Amino acid sequence: MVIGKSLPRVDAYDKATGRTKYTEDLCTPNTYVARIVHATIGHGYVKSIDTSEAEKVPGVVKVLTCFDTPPYKYPTAGHPWSTDPAHQDVADRSLLTSHVRLFGDDIALVIAEDDVSATQAARLVRAEYEELPVVLDAREAMKEGAPVIHEKYPNNVLSHTSSRKGNYEEAIKEPGLIKVEGWYDTPSVQHCHIENFICTSYMENGRIVVLSSTQIPHIVRRVVGQALGIPWGKVRIIKPYIGGGFGDKQDALYEPLCAWATTQVGGHPVKLDLSREETFTNCRVRHAILFHIISYVRPDGSMVARKLEMWSNQGAYASHGHSIAAKAMGAFPQLYPCDNVECDSYTVFTNRSVAGAMRGYGMPQASFAYECHAEDIVMKLGLDPIQFRRDHLMPVGYVDGFSKNELYSDTFNQSMDVGIKAFDYYKKRDLYRNQTGDIRRGIGMSVFWYNTAVFPISLETSSCRMVLNQDGSVQVQVGETEIGQGADTAYAQMTADTLGIPFENVHVVSNQDTDVTPYGTGAYASRQTYTAGMSIRMCAEAFKERILKVAFDYTRMQPYICDIVDGNIIRVTDGRVLMTLGDLATEALYNPKDSHHLTMEKTATIRSNAYSFGCCFAEVEVDIPLCHVKLLRVMNVHDCGRLINPALAEGQVEGGMSMGIGYALSEKMIYDQKTARLLNNNLLDYKLSTTMDHPKLEVHFLENEEPTSAFGTKALGEPPVCPVAPAIRNAILNATGISLHELPMDPHLLFREFKAAGLI
Amino acid sequence: MEDRQYKMVHCYVNGKERAAMVDVRSSLTDMLRNEFGLTSVKKGCEVGECGACAVIIDGDCYDSCIYLAVWAEGKHITTLEGLEGPNGELSDIQQAFVDETAIQCGFCSPGFMLEAHHVLKPGVIYTDDELRKKLSGHLCRCTGYENIMRAVKKTMYQRAGMEMPVEEDRIPLSVPIEDGKVVL
Fold it and tell me: Is the whole model's pTM more than 0.90, yes or no?
């Protein structure tokens, strides 16, 4: 058995030698280069475009403008299509636009023979604008008289949802309640995959082929069809290896534009390779969400009534829209159950970069707000932070009425027990009491909660195909993409064990091609091992049954006394090896009277979901005069069920923690208030963590097997980001007594807050 | 085309004498990728921020995206492809990256491996802080650098002929659970 073993990645050798092919490596030398002309206003209308100077640049093939595009509007969110119009994503995008909604919106496209010509020509495209005022803040955008970004949404509110439970107004009348109120604000941040978004397109036999750095090839195919107004079967999407995605590439980014571009140059190959600056401005970002929470609690911390309001900054276009705020809001009444809860969430258009999916999908924001607020309650009541959580968190046996998700095991307590022991938590809390002086230390923690996959909100489906080769090895294909996380390796481990063949005899076809790959919606929602696990198990079990039936012709042994073990057909009754799988495959294929090409394909409809849980502990040293936080220790404890590959799982957690540390301490997109221009659209001014910004990242797992899962697994990819920022914030609170309410907790924020509190 | 200037560049790439006619405005990244098909040289920012395009030029590590192709005249250039043995054997640092799960999406990996190969002089042992500083010009969004640092350290000790000191975790990666309680 190989499940549970830390085997090297199936793609490790090629990646270690640099020969792995990413999208750019597959472009042919004759490929035209397309460059987007970006608007130089934050909001307004393009009145006219002059392309004459641009067209004079040698090497320019064509200049296309927002006045040339097909009339179709399309959605971009990487959600499965819904045949119910009420559940379809908002279709508000055009390939190029004359209504500029963000600084840098796409107004024209230059196609040239080479990059230099395309870039030079793009600079020479002249646009005349009618400029409108900009708005960057969600609550400002909702005010009367604010600039209207989409005509269909006069107050800029894309969506507003509410949930009500019990009676908040009545409940707060209970005598003796303590009111705790707080505002928690999170910034726009970017995914910063090291490979920028890139795609290339060409036409072949009257169809459009797009190679793209995407997480969701089958969804992108549908969106390209919608954007160009052509049948979806006319589009073929190929997904090569990709240099990171983190949710940014869970959106149709520029595949529709690139697909259209090739049709405008006679089907010649066209490449659209974004710069880092464009990736920051024109791809997706994490929603900046502002939370306002009021809790009425009894002196023991028990929650009597709670109110949540949140404003999610959507930026210029709908993309994933309200789904993110909805997910964040949905967690509020669950994490600390309470009988009387009022929640309202607003997703609001502004002139910022478009917000979409990003690792954690609303939960890093929610975890920050909810776990900071929990700590504020603890401080106000003088309680022990861990005991408060033990007493008031979602209890074992809790079932969510909507998803039917259940907390099956005592994960919260188990994970906190690990943290307490590893950090010597209570000793540290004593040690750090009543500190004075410039340098102070603190310890803090946060729990997290995360759903696996998207049922019942959206369709959950995964298909798997297996093909047996003449040597007994097997190709495996699923639509759930490898995006760096190691999914292919996990799939190979699952296949090897279920089918009964050696790990090295499993060949995962890594690259998805919508002409060939069975339908699967892609890599997102931490769904891959859970959902693809189901189709892999279904397919492998059915395949084994089929193989053993065919084997009867050659072994004369009934299938029910046979099995496949280590690549051999064996007789279970005495363990005898009857023939190798390779011999069977060869005999069955080349049999002139009864030939079998042994394959299997299965689709799993998934109608369950699973909670993933855990916590983070952090220890900091705060230099008060310098307004600087040094992270001394940080540890995540995860229950993602059974580990398929512990080393890869650990790598996932470390990467997520790193993103969480950046979210906590350094990352923030800064927009010019007057023009809406993004000021730090590069990796120098946007402070991504380097090797020097981390302590050792400590990781532990609790393998409580998920009962609903084909292999006992549940979400791991996204959860690691969620608890890090609140744990660090609560550690700073422990060190200084200052409760911070914003991210990132960089020197700018600390200076303001320390000064306000009289610490400096 | 009249305003374009081309120049022939002669250099040594991974030990072999090579020549290419390049647009004088081309970066070394472009030349290595487009003329010589060296796909290990990655483009992540093209302004010297991310380190994905790092190559070794005459013994020093550079971001090839901000090094003009024409400056390579007569230079000895090593890309990641140059670390590999004649039969595809992995070098020590490449093997360590594989063994220590230091690779995820793989896009920053070539630059990191080349920089580490360059930084690690045989027999020289750096502190963790020194090593982190030396590698800080390379950005990675997947790994949190943890496994990368371990792979580099492991290679450093190997090159010094020493065993890497093992830090024993007091609590195992997967914490045992008995009767619903963690066993610590």
Answer: yes
